[in-house]
Design brief:
Layout lengths: L1 E2 L2 E2 L16 E11 L2 E13 L6 E14 L2 E13 L1 H6 L2
Antiparallel strand pairs: 1-2, 1-3, 3-4, 5-6
């Protein structure tokens, strides 16, 4: 995960991360990894951060299929990257 282009943390399934940022406009982005190295950006959120306010962001990835060719295999996925409320975050909705 990145804030304003700077790497801030790596997360796996079920993980969460808490980061303090200065009030103002920020871009939060996520990049998928290929062989444990950051690769393509899977989404970004432009967020205006207010002082003393908590924000909850959900990122999920669902594998939707695999295509096999003579050169190997390619997987397809659907990702969700959005701001959610505290209740949705805690219930993993």
């Amino acid at each position: 995960f990145y804030i304003d282009g700077k790497f801030v943390g790596k997360m796996g399934t079920g993980d969460s991360i808490s980061i303090k940022v200065e009030p103002g406009n920020h871009i939060i982005s996520v990049k998928d990894s290929i062989f444990f190295m950051p690769s393509t950006e899977k989404g970004n959120i432009e967020l205006k951060v207010d002082e003393k306010q908590n924000y909850y962001i959900r990122y999920s990835k669902e594998m939707t299929g695999t295509m096999f060719t003579v050169n190997g295999a390619t997987t397809f996925d659907r990702t969700t990257f959005m701001v959610v409320n505290k209740n949705m975050f805690e219930k993993r909705e």
